[in-house]
Give the backbone structure.
Amino acid sequence: MFKRSVFAAIMLLATLSVAGQNKLVRFEELRALQTTAAKPIVVLIMTDWCKYCHAMQNTMLKNSRVSALLKNSFHTVFLDAEEKKDILFAGRTFKYKSGINELARQLATKAGKLSYPTLCILDANNEIIYQHDGYLSPQAMLYTLNKITEKK
């Protein structure tokens, strides 16, 4: 009986934890979401092998202040730059070419250079309004996201 109670409590806590997290979306879902609730789009362009990418991903998912701001004021997408599947976004199909998805190349290229992680923020019209290549600390990410929401 005790084991069942402990298991039930753990499952309840896990459910509450997941319910409070930022909802990640896919690029294909953005069009419908923007017609319902137009928000800036935060895109983290990353790779599986990049440790700084994973650190930023953890910040976005687990830092309560960053996660809450993302959940309330943005649509959030994690883009694996090495995604081999075609991605439909903004009425265009982006393909995998030369080891990188075309969409990752377009969103993460800054000053002719591509690096990971790159944080890219798009407005409701899918125009880039902010790009940062490299790791952002939780405090810097919070500051940046707050500045973007102040401009709306």
Summary: The longest strand covers residues 41-46. Residues 38 and 139 are 26 Å apart (CA to CA). The beta strands are 41-46, 75-80, 87-89, 92-94, 96-97, 100-101, 109-110, 113-114, 118-122, 128-133. The radius of gyration is 17 Å.
